[in-house]
């Protein structure tokens, strides 16, 4: 017996409700991820694990987009009684499969953001322990949720085809597990959105830079909002009488939670591309590849390299305070009317290197 029955206009369609935001946010996420890789590889030369996890999050988001668009072609967004039943069942099957890349996308995304924050702002072992525990907790809870997606019904095919004889878990158990995971996802999104603001509070960078970075990271609050919306709509999975019609809002929220998270993670790293004259070849060649002097610390054991982060603004002329008495201000004042000769010092494997123009020489060893 077919349970999914609903009388709706045969020509009604809600496909655009999910197709448009899915494609738009995915395209933005992919572009920002590629720009992030370019900046970290060729501009800052600090490509690290957080970048690769961001790539994995983007790839799994692309897989989820593909499954959702395929489901639309099989009837997602249209009333089930206007569809061929076999196509409708396959549509629901595709949506169930889509849960896996969406879950893994959020796992990779939160690992990426955690590793980035740990690398940029880690100051004590307490924070190090916090971030690793945070990664472990989020990963384990998400994997547990992924592990119960298919075993909910026996045989598994009954999960997406109610015509198959079999049994399923009680609705209360299925909904409870999904609500718990959704609540945890929303909570972790909020934590990752607040932490950058907390860490940046005392960092000496221009206010407008802080505002821009915090604004981008605050997209995590939007991601958390969609996670909460998904949690509220989770009962749709077990109680829908017309899944191809009623699943639209649920999967739109689940997808936007993932894609907006990728955008929030990749966006701040592209900031160097917005610097004036960045794409000017002469300007690019003149930029020093060495670390700013303020990044060299007395402790040899310190692993942090502040100058190689997206927050480094030492060479942003337009953002330096006019009244600053920085040792380089004499040069900055003349930048509009003369050629500036830059001298930089960097420590590389124990060697102190002085670089002037195109030449460099070793003047001592650490």
TrEMBL record:
It is found in: Membrane. GO terms for cellular component: membrane. Residues 35-275 form the Rhodopsin domain. The chain crosses the membrane at residues 15-39, 51-74, 94-117, 129-150, 179-201, 213-235, 247-266. Keywords: Membrane, Transmembrane, Transmembrane helix. It comes from the Eukaryota. It is a multi-pass membrane protein. InterPro entries: Rhodopsin_dom_fungi, SAT4-like. Belongs to the SAT4 family. This is Rhodopsin domain-containing protein.
């Amino acid at each position: 017996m077919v349970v999914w029955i609903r009388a709706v206009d045969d020509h009604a369609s809600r496909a655009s409700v999910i197709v448009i935001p899915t494609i738009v946010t995915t395209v933005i996420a992919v572009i920002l991820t590629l720009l992030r890789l370019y900046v970290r590889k060729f501009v800052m030369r600090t490509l690290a694990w957080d970048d690769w996890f961001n790539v994995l999050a983007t790839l799994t988001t692309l897989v989820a987009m593909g499954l959702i668009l395929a489901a639309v072609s099989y009837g997602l967004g249209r009333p089930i009684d206007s569809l061929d039943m076999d196509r409708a069942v396959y549509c629901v099957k595709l949506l169930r499969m889509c849960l896996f890349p969406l879950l893994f996308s959020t796992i990779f995304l939160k690992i990426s953001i955690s590793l980035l924050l740990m690398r940029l702002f880690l100051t004590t072992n307490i924070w190090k322990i916090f971030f690793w525990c945070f990664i472990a907790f989020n990963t384990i809870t998400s994997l547990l949720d992924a592990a119960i997606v298919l075993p909910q019904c026996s045989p598994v095919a009954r999960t997406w085809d109610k015509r198959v004889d079999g049994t399923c878990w009680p609705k209360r158990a299925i909904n409870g597990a999904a609500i718990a995971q959704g609540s945890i996802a929303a909570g972790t999104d909020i934590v990752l959105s607040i932490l950058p603001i907390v860490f940046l509070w005392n960092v000496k960078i221009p206010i407008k830079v802080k505002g821009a970075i915090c604004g981008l990271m605050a997209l995590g609050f939007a991601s958390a909002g969609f996670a909460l919306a998904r949690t509220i709509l989770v009962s749709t999975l077990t109680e829908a009488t017309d899944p191809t019609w009623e699943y639209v809002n649920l999967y739109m929220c689940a997808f936007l939670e993932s894609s907006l998270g990728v955008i929030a993670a990749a966006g701040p790293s592209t900031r160097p591309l917005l610097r004036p004259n960045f794409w000017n070849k002469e300007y690019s060649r003149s930029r020093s590849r060495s670390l700013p002097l303020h990044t060299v610390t007395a402790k040899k054991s310190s692993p942090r390299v502040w100058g190689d982060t997206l927050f480094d603004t030492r060479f942003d002329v337009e953002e330096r305070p006019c009244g600053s008495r920085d040792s380089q201000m004499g040069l900055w004042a003349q930048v509009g009317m003369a050629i500036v000769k830059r001298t930089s010092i960097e420590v590389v494997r124990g060697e102190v290197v002085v670089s002037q123009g195109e030449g460099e020489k070793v003047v001592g060893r650490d």
